[in-house]
Structures are given as C-alpha cells and as structure tokens.
Amino acid sequence: MADLPILEMRNITKAFPGVIANENISLDLKKGEVHALLGENGAGKTTLMNILFGIYKADEGEIFMEGKQISISSPHNALKYGIGMVQQHFTVVPSFTVAENIVLGLKGMGFFIKTKTVESSIEKLGKSYDLPVNPRARVWTLSVGEKQRIEILKLLYTGAKVIILDEPTAVLTPQETEILFKAMRKLVNEGSSVIFISHKLDEVLEISDRVTVLRGGKVVGTEVRDSVDRRSLVRMMVGRDVLLDFDKPKTEPGKTVLQVENLTVKNDKNLEAVKNLSLSIKSGEILGIAGVAGNGQRELAEAIYGLRKPVQGKVVLNDKILRHTDVAQRIKGGVAFIPQDRRAVATCPSLSITENVFMKNSYSMYLPQSPFNLNTRAMQRAAKELISDYSISTPSTKTQARFLSGGNLQKLVLARELSTKPCLIIAEHPTRGLDIGAMEFVYKTLLAHKERGAAILLLAGELYEIFRLSDRVAVIYEGEIMGYTPPDPSFTEEIGFMMAGSKRGEIS
Ligand SMILES: Nc1ncnc2c1ncn2[C@@H]1O[C@H](COP(=O)(O)OP(=O)(O)OP(=O)(O)O)[C@@H](O)[C@H]1O
C-alpha cells in the first residue's frame, strides 16, 4: 500500500436548512486501501460521500485527486475522475438486462450497442473480480446481492479507481458479504481504493486498513486498523460504552395472540415462497425466525400484515380470523409492522415527519372542532416527543422524511410502530442501518414491549440479534419451518444446517 493519497477532501463544510451535516471535514484516501467511514446515524457520512460523488456541492472546502485540485459537478463528472459510488438504494432498471444496465447512460455507446461484445466483456470483468453475473439476465429476476454486484461492475466498467460503498452489507446475506469482501480485497490489491460505510463493527475491523469516525458532522479521528478495537470504535462514535448485553425480562407467555395456519403465499415471480406454514406466538413472547434472506420471510410478514394475499391458509389474531389483504383491520386490532423496505413501504418520503408518524393513527384524537381541521399543533407536539424519545436527528417536525439519513428514517418507522401499544409486532430487520447506540435502544424497547405482554415476530438476518431477543427460534428454509431451537448460541451449527435445508424435530 503506497503512502501517496490518491484522494484528499480538505475542510469540507455542508449545511442544510437547520443542520450542519459536515463541518470542516478532512479525509484522505490512499491508493490500495479500504478506508472505513463510521459514525452514528446522521453523523454526516452519506452527505460527505454525496459531495465526493458530485450529488451535492460543498459550501466550503477542496478536493484533490492525485495532488491536483478538482471540482466535481455531477456523478457523471465524478466518474470521469474515476470516482464511483454504490448508494444505499440501487439505481438499476428492473426490466433491463444486466448488460443494458451496465452500459446505460455511458457515453460512446450510441444507439447501436454491440450487445455480444458488451456481454462478453462484462462476463470477463465479473469473473476477474470474483463477481460473477449473467449479462443476459433481466435485473428484476436477481437477488439484492446480485443487483449490488451490477452496480459495482458498472463502476469498474467505467474505470473507477475510487469506489464508495455506502452500507453495502446492510442488505446482504453473510454469504453475499463474503463474496463482496473477496471482491473488495481483489480491488485494493490491484490498486483501487475503497471507502466503506458500515455500522457493523466486526466487518469494519475485518476489512479496513484505516477508519475515520464522524460525530455530529465533525471528524473525531482517523486510526489505522491495528490501533483500534470494537470498544474504542464505539467510544469514538458514541462517546460511551455500549455493551448490547442485557438480560431478557422473564415473562410467562400468556394466551395465544397470533396463529398462522397452513399459510401458502406466492412471491412476485408467482412462485410459492411460503409453503403450508403454521406458527403461533403468545403474549409476552418473542419468536425469532432465522434464515438466509429470500427464503420467504418477507412474503410471510406481508401476508400476516395483509399486504399480500395468501393462496391458502388462515391468520388468526386474538382468536379472530383476519380477512386477507385488510390492513386497516390489523391496524385497528393493534398490529405493528416494521417492514424491511423503509423507503418504499414504510414511509411516504415527501410527507413530513409529523405526517409520517401519524399516518396510521386514528386522526380523531387530533380533531378538535371539525373533521376537516387537524390539530396540527398537537400532532407536532406529539411528534416532537417521539423525535426526542427515539433520538431522531432532524431540524424540525416539518422536515420531509426523504431528507432523513437512512438510520434516522428507520427510527421514524420504529417510533410510529412501537409508540402505540401494539399487541402484535412484526419486525423485519428492525435494526438494519442503525448505529450501535440506536440498536441498543431498539433491543431494550422490543424487550419492554415483550414485558408489557406484546407478542413479537422477529425476522432478522443476524443470529446474534435473534439469540439476544427471542424466546424461541424457528428456522425457515424455502418457505418452510425446518425446526425450532432455544435461543442459545450453542445451537448455531444446528441452525446453520437447518438454514441450508435440513429438518429438525421440534424441541421446545
Ligand atoms: N438533502 C437533505 N436536506 C436536508 N437535510 C439533509 C439532507 N441530506 C442529509 N440531511 C441531514 O444531514 C444530516 C447528516 O445526514 P447523513 O445522511 O449524511 O448521515 P449519515 O451519517 O449517513 O447517517 P446514517 O447512518 O443514518 O445513514 C442529517 O441530519 C440529515 O437529516
């Protein structure tokens, strides 16, 4: 790893109405390094990278590429300098093929693309970086990990030397993460440089050469990998120790709240994603569903919440059979839902924080005199309380949800769903994208709801999260439950076998 910085950002400042997202930030990137960018939700990581990729213009500060000052006016312009970014939300076109997506918008392609030549060079490029793709596949048929691969290959195809990955592993399975890390190692060994944003400290420690920590829009410090550990990074980020190690409250499960009977649900490709599945959860109990992403978890959650019509089966809430696709009935019945897609399913990006918080509520409590007059003041007061309880970093209750950072948007969803007193909580990846302090808060909140008597269905990608929170663990594979285990790490290997399709007898 040579010492010459390939890229330098000097004294970058960027303000949005009511918030200084970046304050006098300096960051340098060496040739052939993975440089991690860490920080709490809203610390300013994405903003800084959006400036580097030409999405935003800094109010102050300079950028140097190999010693020369450059001015980046757009993502297209950034790519010309060899700077590319894979954002948290992919920009691929689902109905196009992989090859079409990769060459889309590239200059010099003209109207007549030499399809065969492009396809074969993409295939070769993929193989050479251990990122195999089928260039002829339509993007909508691909997994999230494969879509991300296309975004990375697109950058490599354009010759990017500085690659920014904004929380790339948040949506990946452990296997896909391994594939990505292998490709990252190959990239840096061949002289590229990677800026890696992640909240997962173990990953940061595994893959990075250096780490820069931001807090409240400022740099706390830049350290080489070997001089830091999990604890020191947490202290730099949060300013205190976060242990994520607390006892589960001991509750005696009460009466059955949710009963799912012989549910079969199809996915968007019209294939059976959930097959004849039955489960039940009692009051005061957390059932954790472990499984590799894409094994029917999403379809199961959506069918229980009424967003997806099952082909067969019953969903029973507190002894009452629910009508399929009747979400209003679930809301009235006290069901909370934290979906995995916080931008497209969980929130309305162009509505304010207040409106997003109250969109599921009965507005009646905020109607003072006439049904046409919402008591917006009372709503804003209540929204303010939630912003403070859930530490949502935002300038105001009137800010549109789309301006929140990824983690803060997730906190907004949690605030809305958990602040009522739901009898059933369906939580899909509730801590995805959250910083470690926020994660601690969510764990404690979910456990408090369990103690209060809520039944909780937890669908999480990380086993440690399932072990910490659940009372029972069910393992799902291809839409079927392979077996149950107690929430104990000593069952990890057995769970691994079940996640790969082996069955086990129910033991709890
Ligand atoms: N376009 C925008 N308009 C207004 N405010 C914005 C905009 N983009 C970001 N912000 C604000 O700037 C601050 C920093 O946000 P940023 O997205 O950079 O944080 P982050 O460190 O990436 O957080 P996370 O880990 O949650 O993704 C936040 O308070 C956010 O609300």
From TrEMBL:
Keywords associated with the record: ATP-binding, Cell membrane, Membrane, Nucleotide-binding, Repeat, Translocase, Transport
Localization per Swiss-Prot or TrEMBL: Cell membrane
Gene Ontology molecular function terms on file: ATP binding; ATP hydrolysis activity
Topology term for the membrane: Peripheral membrane protein
A single Gene Ontology CC term: plasma membrane
Predominant subcellular localization, coarse grouping: membrane
Superkingdom to which the source organism belongs: Bacteria
Keyword Transferase included in the entry's annotation: no
InterPro entries attached to this UniProt entry: AAA+_ATPase (IPR003593), ABC_carbohydrate_import_ATPase (IPR050107), ABC_transporter-like_ATP-bd (IPR003439), ABC_transporter-like_CS (IPR017871), P-loop_NTPase (IPR027417)
Location of the ABC transporter domain: 7-241, 258-503
Name of the molecule in the record: ATPase component of uncharacterized ABC-type transporter
Native source organism of the sequence: Mesotoga prima MesG1.Ag.4.2
